[in-house]
Amino acid sequence: MLNMQNVVLKMTAGRKDQFPRDGHVQIALSGRSNVGKSSLINTLLGRKSFARTSAQPGKTITINFYEVDKKLYLVDLPGYGYARRSADSRRVWASLTNDYLVSGTMQMVFQLIDLKVGPTEDDYMMIEWLNANHVPYVVVATKADKLGTTARNANFDALASHPLLNPPYADEKIRTIMFSSQSGMGKNELLSILSELAQN
Ligand SMILES: Nc1nc2c(ncn2[C@@H]2O[C@H](COP(=O)(O)OP(=O)(O)OP(=O)(O)O)[C@@H](O)[C@H]2O)c(=O)[nH]1
Ligand SMILES: [Mg+2]
Fold it and tell me: Which of 90, 157, 193, 200 has the fewest CB atoms within 10 Å, i.e. the most exposed one?
C-alpha cells in the first residue's frame, strides 16, 4: 500500500542535472496544456491544490517531481500544444521534455487525452514516440464529467479502439482509463497501478 498522504514536491527541475536519480519508480504525466495533469495529481493525492493547476496554461516550463511515500515520483511534465507560446518558450519546452524522455528514468507514462476534445496532432506524435520506444503507458481520458453518458462512452470507445493504441502499432492493447478529477472517476484504477509499480 502507498501512503498518498506522505508527499513532497522534491524537485522543480528546469535542467536535466536536476532530475532525481535515486532509483524511485517514476511515473510521468504527459499531455497537452490544460488537459488536466496537475489536477489529476491533486486528485490522486486527495489534495485540493498541491500540484499547481494553471489559470494561465503553459506558463511554467519546469518538470515537477512529487515524491510519494518515499517510493515513487509523480512527474508533472510541462504541457504541449499551447498555441500562444513564444518560439523561445517552445524551444525550452522541447529541450527539457526531450532530456527527460531520453533520460530513461521513467517506468511508466500516463498519457492524458481530453475525452471531449479527443486526440490532437501533438498527442499522436507523443503516442507514436511511446510506441516506437516501447515505453509502457496507459491512456487517461480526462474531464469525463463534461460529457453525458452517451457521448462519454462513444468517445471512450473511439479512443480505446484507435489503431495507434492497438497492435501492431502498439506492442499490446493499451489500457485506457476514463477519468475525472471532479468526480473522482478512475481514481482507484490509477492508484492501483501506482501501488503495483511501487512494489516492483
Ligand atoms: N470539468 C473538469 N475540469 C477539469 C478536470 N481536470 C482539470 N480541469 C480543469 O482544466 C483546467 C486545466 O487543468 P490543469 O490540471 O491545470 O491542466 P494541466 O494539464 O496541468 O495544464 P498545464 O500545467 O498548463 O500543462 C483547470 O481549469 C482545471 O480546473 C476535470 O476532470 N473536469
Ligand atoms: Mg499543470
Answer: 200
Domains in the chain: ranges and CATH? 7-199 (3.40.50.300)
Alpha-helical (H) ranges within 46-142 are 87-102, 121-132
Please give the biggest Cα pair distance in the chain.
Answer: 47
Ligand 1 interacting residues, C-beta cut-off 6 A: 31, 33-39, 53-54, 57-58, 79, 142-143, 145-146, 180-182
Nearest atom in ligand 1 to 180's CA:
31
Cα 168 to ligand 2 centre (Å): 32
CB atoms within 10 A of CB 109: 25
Express each pLDDT in 80-90 by its tens digit. Answer: 887 677 888 88
Instruction: Give the model confidence (pLDDT) of 84-113 as tens digits.
Output: 778 888 888 889 999 999 999 999 999 999
Nearest ligand to residue 110 Cα: 1
CA-proximal residue: ligand 1, atom 13 (nearest): 36
Q: Identify whether the C-beta of residue 179 lies closer than 8 Å to the C-beta of residue 144.
A: yes
In terms of phi and psi (left: phi > 0; alpha: psi -120 to 50; beta: otherwise), the region of 69 is left
The dihedrals phi and psi of 49, each to the nearest 5 degrees, come to -150, 55
Calculate ∠ Cα 51-62-188, nearest 5°: 35
Query: Which among 44, 53, 82, 112 is the best mutation to test ligand 1's pocket, defined by most ligand atoms within 8 Å of the CB?
Result: 53
